[in-house]
């Protein structure tokens, strides 16, 4: 039912459930007396006057007539939405300015924040991409690449330089893409899909995502953390450039021992 879907969205704007119910049902029966609205909305008659009084104070509901002829009318939906939008914009602008005055400088921030939920990871990544001004380095797999495609395309349109290490089938076209050739091996080694994002060399996310979308990751403005994430992506790209150009020579040189190149604890002659 439409009403049941709308009420939680209105309560998310700071209204009580009864206030949301009263406004939504009033739109369908207005102009209405308090008794008529109580019957239509299911709000107890002992509460309806209090609820309507609060909505009148918030200028969401208006009164017509007096005494027994008193009727209530709700503000038009488009005006309600626009007024809430402007209210929150003003509130966020004021809040942002106030918090900036209280906060330490970004250069002094060295915290590393854990990320354990997939939706939080994607939301944070999207906001980082949307805020990127100059450069964006990304190491990702098809699922996350497809989800972030709109934000990546918009960033590229703004002139942001993008370099992506992509594991598996490529589903994005934003920026320069380097396809990693051994995604299955890496999935087994890491126990999931790796995800690394660095924007403007000032913020980074590093995470591992399992098949069930369980996340173990972190976000930080810490320069050491950022440098490690940035170097990880850059070195992957360096290696892929070399392999792309000299893969035949490497196979000829190492033969069936080619995979030993990934054995970091040995440096034997593989020829």
How would you characterize the overall build of this protein?
This protein has 271 residues and is an alpha+beta fold. The chain has two domains: 5-81, Arc Repressor Mutant, subunit A (Orthogonal Bundle), CATH 1.10.10; 111-262, Endonuclease Chain A (Endonuclease, Chain A). Helix content is 52%, strand content 18%. The chain is built from nine helices and nine strands. The strands form two sheets. A seven-stranded mixed sheet has the order 3-9-8-7-4-5-6, sandwiched between helices. The chain has a two-stranded antiparallel sheet with strand order 1-2. Strand 7 and strand 8 (203-209) form a beta hairpin. It is elongated, with a radius of gyration of 28 Å. Residues 112-210 form the Transcription regulator TrmB C-terminal domain. One of its GO terms (biological process) is regulation of DNA-templated transcription. This is Sugar-specific transcriptional regulator trmb.
């Amino acid at each position: 039912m439409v009403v049941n879907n709308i009420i939680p969205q209105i309560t998310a704007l700071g209204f009580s459930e009864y206030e949301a119910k009263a406004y939504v049902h009033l739109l369908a029966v207005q102009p209405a007396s308090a008794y008529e609205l109580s019957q239509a909305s299911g709000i107890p008659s002992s509460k309806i006057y209090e609820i309507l009084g609060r909505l009148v104070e918030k200028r969401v509901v208006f009164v017509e007539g007096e005494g027994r002829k008193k009727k209530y009318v709700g503000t038009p939906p488009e005006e309600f939405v626009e007024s809430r939008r402007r209210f929150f914009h003003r509130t966020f602008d004021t809040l942002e300015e106030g918090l900036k005055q209280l906060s330490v400088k970004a250069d002094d921030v060295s915290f590393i924040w854990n990320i354990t939920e997939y939706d939080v990871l994607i939301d944070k990544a999207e906001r980082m991409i949307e805020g990127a001004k100059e450069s964006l380095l990304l190491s990702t797999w098809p699922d996350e690449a497809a989800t972030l495609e709109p934000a990546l395309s918009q960033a590229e349109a703004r002139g942001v330089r993008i370099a992506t290490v992509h594991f598996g089938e490529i589903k994005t076209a934003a920026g320069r893409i380097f396809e990693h050739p051994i995604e299955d091996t890496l999935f087994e080694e890491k126990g999931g899909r790796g995800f690394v994002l660095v924007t403007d060399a000032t913020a980074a996310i590093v995470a591992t995502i399992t098949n069930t979308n369980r996340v173990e990751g972190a976000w930080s403005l810490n320069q050491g953390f950022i440098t490690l994430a940035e170097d990880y992506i850059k070195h992957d790209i360096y290696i892929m450039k070399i392999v792309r150009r000299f893969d035949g020579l490497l196979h000829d040189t190492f033969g069936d021992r080619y995979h030993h190149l990934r054995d970091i604890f040995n440096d034997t002659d593989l020829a």
